[in-house]
Design brief:
Its cofactor is Zn(2+). The chain is an alpha/beta fold. The chain is built from 11 helices and 17 strands.
Amino acid sequence: MKALCYVGPNELAVKERSIPVIGPGEVLIKVNYAGICGTDMLAYHGGMTKRTKPSVILGHEFSGIVYEAGPFSSFQKGDRVTVEPITSCGECDSCQRGYYNLCTIAFNLIGIDSDGAFAEYIKVPESKVYRLGATISMQDGALIEPLAVCVHAVEKGNIAPGQTVLVVGGGPIGIITALTAQQRGAKVFISEISPYRIQVAHQWGFEVLNPTEENFLEQINEKTHGRGVDVSIEATGTNNGMVTCIEAARTKGIVVITGLPKKNADFDVYRIIAKELQLVGTRVYMKEDYDQAIELLSSGGLDLSSLISKVVPLEEAIQQGFEAIDNGEDVIKILISLSDEDEKA
């Protein structure tokens, strides 16, 4: 099978790899679509060399069709599915308390720590496979993983109807987080500097504030009657994003950190003390977040299809995907097509 592999920092290659052989409790999936995300970009640029080793197949946001399952599996060939791509030790303190997303011994993100979905086939634990309802397209199925990230972030922020929320960053995670918070009844503002992303956010009906403008905090205060926002969510992984979240939050507010930082942050800790802010980290998701993400798409509560900017074949994924993102192409989400069937429904 063909697979897109990490070769080393700033180097990817499409290679021939053997189709995985499943063992007990595993399912073989024929991948339809897989999304390129910020974590893939970080790994590509050598930002995760302690975890992502040369030759590993990238990709963890995907949908596909069950191709093979064991004799006692609850799945059968042809089932339309997506996957929660993390595994854990099950034995450490975090896992024993039910927080397997915080595993301290053997946390494994498929597509970063082990072979992922930028390939024609992938084998995964059956316990991590979720059926897609008839109302979810295969392309939308590849967006369930990032949606689950955003559901988890919104949960960590305890966002409730009537609250004000600032999402810093209008990329895929930022937009989907904003939509998820809005779906819960919050009034959401987005902070963004890219003209294209500002345009996209406006198309979704969001009020967008540019943090480079001198009166940014004045605008926040004006729109929140001088209080600041109840919850701010950092989705850029930048120092400026952290500072914006801290300054925009009201006293006793919550700052949720979702963006992966590329370097250590540098901000005024006293501002956190003076406002008695809660800084909350959020790492991927758990089963309940996946269940909720699937329900949101199945019920029509959210429609994310317009976030898909383009779909590219595997052979063009490096130039038309990774390099396009690096070059600042106007995109939100790029999917890689891995099936000749190119099923959309």
